[in-house]
């Protein structure tokens, strides 16, 4: 356990509920050497389900704000005045304005603004640009999980590249077992999958940027030549109702299972034969890294840092974003050559060892 004199880092997040950013933060906090540095998590909303999984010596303070709050920055400042952190790390753009406000009201802490990606893709908002401009005056540093995000910050926020640290997402490969045959059988059975059925999975929030609609069209097309194909959709979000309706419209509702938010993603991946990322925009996808750690062959859109993370033809197949036909063809290629798919899975697992948390 860290000494009370050890520097304290306050990690500011929207909440500890479900998403890739939150899963990475949780894993990072487990991996840190807590003897030399203390940590606390502050959530703008309610704490979220992951809060119960934090290490015992990491406090979680929920501000519990609802909707657009004009007071959350002041409330965060009160917390920081009490905790006296050495560093305030705002872990995505939705937390930047409040972190900047707290730093202005409670001088002394170093400020770090982290960028994981924009929920809807596109560009930084006026609010984001304003927060970044004030943060620069305050001497803040910036981080991005992707090189693409690093360049976007430099171009749109006018932050010098030397002030933006590229910190790729990490992963604990030991949490994922590529050879979990016993787990695979039980999980597949729980979803009603038969041994001969080919299961592809997608993990992520049900939001437009994740491209589920494109994947659904691809599955409908691929089913013409792969009648045993099934799709496991892990995650939830605002588009669930619309996607359920689309599955019915495409007549693939019997092939698609919506699993909702799950905190047992490594176990669910053991049931998959391949994993798909259909995103229209990404930085560095946690779900992609988890699939690679699970030894799964990948089909992914060529967005964000995916071309440098997934070696096309070695770890998986890359396709243009928004192209359902190319996505379907890549899925058919994987399932048409089991030996090649297995080799890609092994290569992906070896590749992801380079992104360990150490």
Describe this protein's structure.
This protein is of the alpha/beta class and 358 residues long. The protein is built from 13 helices and 13 strands. The protein has helices at 20-31, 72-83, 96-105, 126-137, 147-157, 181-191, 212-222, 240-249, 265-269, 286-293, 306-309, 324-336, 338-352, and strands at residues 8-13, 38-43, 59-62, 87-90, 110-115, 141-144, 164-166, 198-203, 229-234, 256-260, 274-277, 298-301, 316-319. Strands 3-2-1-4-5-6-7 form a seven-stranded parallel sheet, with helices on one face. Helix 7 crosses helix 12. It is globular and about 65 Å long.
Task: Please give a handful of descriptors for the protein shown.
358 residues; alpha/beta; 7-stranded parallel beta sheet; 13 helices; 13 strands; 17% strand; globular
Order of helices and strands: EHEEHEHEHEHEHEHEHEHEHEHEHH
**Overall pLDDT score:** 92
Please tally the helical runs, counting DSSP H or I stretches of 4 or more residues. 13
Pairing-aware structural class of the strands and helices? Answer: alpha/beta
Short structural description:
The protein is an alpha/beta fold and 358 residues long.
SSE blueprint and pairings:
Layout: E1 8-13, H1 20-31, E2 38-43, E3 59-62, H2 72-83, E4 87-90, H3 96-105, E5 110-115, H4 126-137, E6 141-144, H5 147-157, E7 164-166, H6 181-191, E8 198-203, H7 212-222, E9 229-234, H8 240-249, E10 256-260, H9 265-269, E11 274-277, H10 286-293, E12 298-301, H11 306-309, E13 316-319, H12 324-336, H13 338-352
Helix pairs in contact: 2-3, 7-12, 10-13
């Amino acid at each position: 356990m860290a000494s009370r004199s050890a520097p304290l880092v306050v990690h500011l997040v929207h909440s500890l509920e479900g998403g890739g950013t939150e899963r990475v933060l949780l894993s990072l906090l487990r991996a840190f050497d807590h003897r030399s540095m203390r940590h606390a998590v502050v959530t703008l909303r309610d704490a979220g389900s992951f809060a119960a999984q934090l290490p015992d010596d990491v406090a979680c303070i929920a501000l519990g704000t609802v909707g657009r709050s004009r007071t959350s920055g002041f409330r965060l400042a009160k917390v920081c005045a009490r905790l006296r952190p050495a560093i305030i790390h705002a872990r995505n753009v939705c937390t930047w304005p409040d972190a900047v406000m707290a730093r202005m009201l409670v001088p002394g802490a170093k400020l770090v603004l982290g960028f994981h990606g924009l929920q809807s893709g596109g560009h930084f908002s006026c609010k984001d640009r304003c927060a970044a401009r004030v943060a620069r005056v305050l001497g803040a540093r910036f981080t991005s999980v992707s090189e693409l995000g690093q360049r976007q910050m430099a171009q749109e926020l006018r932050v010098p590249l030397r002030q933006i640290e590229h910190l790729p997402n990490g992963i604990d490969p030991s949490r994922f077992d590529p050879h979990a045959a016993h787990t695979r059988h039980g999980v597949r059975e729980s979803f009603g999958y038969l041994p001969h059925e080919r299961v592809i999975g997608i993990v992520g929030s049900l939001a437009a940027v994740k491209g589920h609609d494109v994947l659904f069209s691809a599955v409908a097309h691929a089913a013409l030549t792969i009648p045993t194909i099934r799709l496991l959709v892990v995650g939830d979000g605002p588009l669930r109702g619309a996607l359920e309706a689309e599955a019915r419209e495409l007549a693939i509702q019997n092939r698609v299972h919506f699993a909702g938010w799950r905190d047992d993603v490594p176990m669910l991946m053991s049931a998959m034969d391949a994993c798909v990322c259909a995103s229209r925009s990404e930085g560095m996808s946690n779900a992609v890294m988890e699939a690679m750690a699970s030894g799964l062959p990948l089909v992914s859109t060529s967005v964000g840092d995916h071309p440098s993370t997934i070696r096309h033809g070695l770890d998986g197949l890359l396709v243009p974003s928004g192209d359902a036909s190319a996505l379907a063809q890549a899925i058919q290629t994987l399932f048409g050559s089991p030996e090649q798919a297995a080799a890609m899975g092994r290569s992906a697992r070896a590749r992801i060892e380079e992104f360990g948390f150490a």
